[in-house]
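Below is one such protein, fold included:
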Amino acid sequence: MRRVYFDHAATTPVDPEVAELVMKYMTDHFGNPSSVHGFGREVKKPLEQAREQVTKAIGASHVGEIAFCSGGTEAANMALRGAAHINKQKGNHIITTSVEHHAVLSTCQQLAKEGFEVTVLPVDQYGRVSVEDVKNALTEQTILVSIMHANNEVGTIMPIADIGKMLKEQDRKIIFHTDAVQSIGKLPVNVDDLNVDILTLSGHKIYGPKAIGAMYLRRGTWWQPIMYGGGQERRRRPGTENAPGIIGLGKAIEKVTENREQEAERLTKMRKKLVDKILHNIPNTRLNGDPDNCLPGHASFCFDYIEGESMLLSLDMQGIAISSGSACTSGSLEPSHVLLAMGIPKEIAHGSLRITMGKYNTEEDVDYFVDNLIPIIERLRKMSPLASGACTPCGCASCEENH
């Protein structure tokens, strides 16, 4: 049986070259990078090289703007909580969107309990927030705006550069954060072009190790640490650095950014093939998110009359790994908050699948996936009491309309 991994938005396999480098700094070179002896120095140098690699990959101007941490979730907490509390004397208003990752949404909810006012903006049918809505939500008390670069569930790309430009035109030093966990290595990411003050990223989405991430903090941005202890990471994230993870992240981000354009073109072609085959062969199916302005290799669908969990289990039995949404909420019985925010009815949102391809996938994987998905959908719909009036692919006008 063929095995197909189509869940790269949840996590990616570690690149063999990255894995070899990580193992080297877990075994042969194990010193604490804060130590002044030789064991520490031989780790400190490649750690700082990794900082340079991240700096270059996102177009930052100085290595001192990069702080390493345990991953995207911690980075988002650092970004939002650190910016909100130090600027509270200037205002207490935060703006975000209804389709953010829970690392941002839950942090904003906690900040609301601590006295901040949080505006959660709606999105359109494609999952995109408008620049005008962000502008209209601004008040004299607004100190922070946090909007993701690309959505982890439906792949829609947000107008970050335009929002950042608009915020700068306000001339009020409103801090702008973007969660770039899903866009690094897939889209052009340059902090100056995006007009952001803080950017957060994660290693395990770009063929690097898990439990490592980074926060970019533009020089001059008012921010304070949320943890205290040692002086590591310029006191922005205390504690002994995860040197193997940091060094692995540096190599991983260097590799994905060097090959980004070629890989994005390949994945976009594969995505088009997958979307065309599914919409042509499976009626009562809708593509979620923006069909064009989206991440390469990322596709989300809703299949009417079926529960997503049933599809996941059936596909897993055929060796195919996909998701019904964010991996962080895969155990939840509630439908995706992203799909609901896009206006998709709850009963339809339950029947969602997220397919995210990566650098080891092939067109043969696409064919295998769709060839297995078609009979699974047909079988599950025959079992569903909701599908009694559903159309079957017979070539009638109704079928054409559904496709």
